[in-house]
Amino acid sequence: MEKDFQIDELKKHFKDKVILIEKKNNRRIFVHISPDAVVKISDFLFSNLHYRFIIASALQSNLGFEIYYHFSNDKNGEIVNLHVILPAKKTAIESLTGLFEAANWIEREMHEILGIDFLNHPNLEKLISEGNWAEGVYPYRIEK
Amino acid sequence: MGFKEFCFKKSLWLFHFGGASCNNCDIEILDCLTPRYDVERFGMLLVGSIRHADVLLVNGSINQKDKKRLLEIYHQAPKPILVVAIGACGCTGGIFAEGNTFAGPVDKIIPVDAYIPGCPPKPEAILAGIVKLLNKKPEQHKSA
Amino acid sequence: MSKIIPIGPYHPLQEEPELFKLYCEGEIVKDVKWETGYNHRGIEKLSESKTFDQVFFLVERVCGICSTSHPFAFANCIEEIGEIEVPNRAKYIRTIIAELERIHSHLLWVGLAGHFLGYNTVFMWAWKYREPVLDLFEKISGNRNSYAMFKIGGVRRDIENDKIPEIKKILDLVKKKTDLLTGAVMDDPVIHARTKGVGILTKEDIIDFAAVGPTARASGIAIDVRKDDPYAAYPLINWKVITAEEGDVFAKAKVRLLEMYESVSIIEQCLDGLKKEPEGQTEIVVKNIPEGIGTGHAEAPRGEVFHFAKTNGSNYPVRHKIRAPSYVNIATFKKSCIGQTISDATISLAAVDPCYCCTERLASVYDFGSGHKILGGEELIRISQKQTDKLLKL
Ligand code: SF4
User: Fold this and answer.
1) Which of A101, B92, C36, C288 is most buried, judged by most C-beta within 10 A?
2) pTM of this prediction?
């Protein structure tokens, strides 16, 4: 009961920024949001609802670049995936590192493998590519 | 007896270099030191610096970034030195050979005297391999 | 003038082999920076070119010590996409393997922590008692590491019922030896002196860095995927989550040692459960994986392993993301090391249990100005060991 209530709160707070809440089963929830609200919604999940940030996964698809931010509620084992779509032309999104340290490395990694820019990231340096592949090469991108 | 044979006659000191490995090989090498296998009874000792070593053990696939370090270590080594490639990764690249950062198996980078295959090779196999190498006729040592 | 002390660079988990640079003034660590990429093998990319059956062999080799946890999380992930329910017998076998792995991994850690403290007796003991566990693995799966037990819909090999008494006998032995080891570690005044109050992580730090596993549990945060989001046989049996409040290195050691007892008890209950299930029912046949997005996690010895996969109805994952526990735990060094002395830094680093190779290999100290090598990796361990000697003489 309670958990449905928690997630529906998102819709109440952020209205049209939350495009769709999709409950796959009662432990896996996908929330499709618009990219400009990612910081606010993550902050709400992290500070108000006390979710733990697990990781983010980026991938390339026909729609452009997609990022899933995975959050977990350790009290009832549910995983909430915030899903944003970035158009292929404008691959930039606000960084979450200001909210929690845990986002630091993964944003650097996504920057390297897919070339997504994270605005306001404290240090968007190379993490894994140094010496392994050249600057400006994004090995996980699909050439079209 | 020539100088080269003389060098490998008594206690050998080993130096361990791990490339991009999965860690199993490293653990099995360390396992050789512990009471059940006890490599020290053959007079072998794992040392912390290549400058003291007679044998260089290399395990794991080598990626672009490691390649430079491996070459540097090889140049720092006092010659003659024996090189042993350990594990499927060290011998051929193993499961990682198709990876985008793979820089070639060990023998494409430095000369190798012995191969110990297995994923991971058992400690018994590592011991058997090194002892076999010792009993090899010295003129067959490639790099020595 | 601050000196840079690099620790690393090799670290054996997925994309996270690192070079730590400790910025020191005198003996005090002022800042920590890291650099990774030495161990990057492009596993996520490789995985996209392998069929679901082959991916298991690949993720097993993300980390040799956690060679059950990654397949476990991946199986959870794909089975969620396909809505597959594995038979009970397979659930029990999966749990047994995962817990055996926890025991061997924790023993390995205790040994290495002992080594870093200059306590080589503990190192030799712990690794000696780890051998029976590896023998068990060899009995069950045919290999000491990399067990290849997992597949979608079940496990590859059965544990026959007539093997169970034998396994129980070895478990008893392991338990006895663990008693011995726990006694030796927990009551030792020198270990107390070297680990209590060292490398403290507070609750707030843990939440900020989103640390998981024993690192979080030692700071009083009771997160454990096995309890929070139960999978496999964990909901069917009785066990408890071990926590400690202090957050220092000693608390982490305590949590790990006590967890081993829980693991033994879990395995025993699973073996009893196994007897009730019909032999041979270890898998269900899975024809194809539908299109979808799945997330799966499992509790590895070091914390939560997280896998994310996107499928498109074909034989291959379209995108596969792996998050190993050390990825978030290692970042906590920034908190636990700063303000410590160099000799305490090694054990603080070792406390979150990154794979040991990183501190063992190619560590060297560079003078900030000239870039000349001053101290090697052995040297660092030696400094740490000297500190213990000093304490012994007091
Ligand atoms: S040979 Fe096998 S066990 Fe050894 S590093 Fe490679 S994958 Fe790991």
Assistant:
1) C36
2) 0.86
